[in-house]
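Give me structure tokens for this 182-residue protein.
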Amino acid sequence: MSPQAVGRLTVRPLAPRADAEVLHRWVTHPKAAYWMMQDARPEDVEREYLRIAAHEHHHALLGLHDGEPAFLMEHYDPRHVELVGLYEPQPGDVGMHFLVAPSDTPIHGFTLAVITAVMRELFRDPAVRRVVVEPDVANTAVHRLNEAVGFVPVGKITKPEKEALLSFCTRERFARATGGAA
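Here you go.
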């Protein structure tokens, strides 16, 4: 199924106070174990996203599927957040995280459509030349998704909270992997 066949995917700025309840349900769900917020209380989630909203180099967006909340997207400047001192950033690098909401009625191909939409959103900025991700080395499902949209692993890195697989995706690799322009 093509990413476009799942419905309309859009993003809007995250409203930490208004969106905290829905985010809390997502990040504490067993499927979100790699977000390491399983024991978070609603006020912890709100506080974390207020912190991100106030951060100059870290941003969160709420993803919508046909107008309804369905995924979370974060992007950050790896020179200042998450990867400081763990690799040599290049001009045009942007870091990314995404989380698909748990669903009782999964849609085949939805997560691939989401990561594709997230990457398109990032590459809409002409200054972005390469997307950087650092998922847990054990998160093989996301490694497969990353590969499907053009990410190339470059090696393991040790972060305070996890062993991560550092991977990069250039605008050109994304376009080749998805059959279209970034």
